[in-house]
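Recall the central idea of this unit: under ordinary conditions, the amino acid sequence of a chain determines the structure it adopts. In this exercise we apply that idea directly, starting from the sequence alone.
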Amino acid sequence: MHSSGSIITALTFTPYYSQTEDRIRLVVNYTDFTNRIDFWITRAFLLKLAPSWEEYYFRYASHQKINTDTHQSSSETAATDNSTLSVTEKAGVLLEAVDMTFDSSNETFEIRLRGSDTQAVAVLSEEMMMTLIKTIFNAAPHMQWGISPALLVS
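Accordingly, the structure predicted from this sequence is:
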């Protein structure tokens, strides 16, 4: 685990649902074991985040970019093999807070994911911010968690 107060630059995000834990594991920097953080996202926390993410994103995003197809492949949300993720798993850190800021000068979002003793920070374009949010919500078991599959559909 990282030393107290460490900040990691997040380059990739890989969310997947762990049926055993009944949580989403958001793997930050999947391929860089030294700078990797495995955040646990609980159902309760995700449901609290939904309105905030939606409001914040739609307040700052341009309308033409909201309707962009976000099913494209990217390094930030690159697909990985779940069996490989299981083998290389690190101890999970409970995600306790998510802070977001928008820089209007270059139209980027900064997202800061915080656990008890570590943080991951990323600067994302509008498209990548929405892709990240949708990918995390798509990892949730919609029916079991009472989340509409149409949530965040623009």
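The two ends are 38 Å apart (CA to CA).
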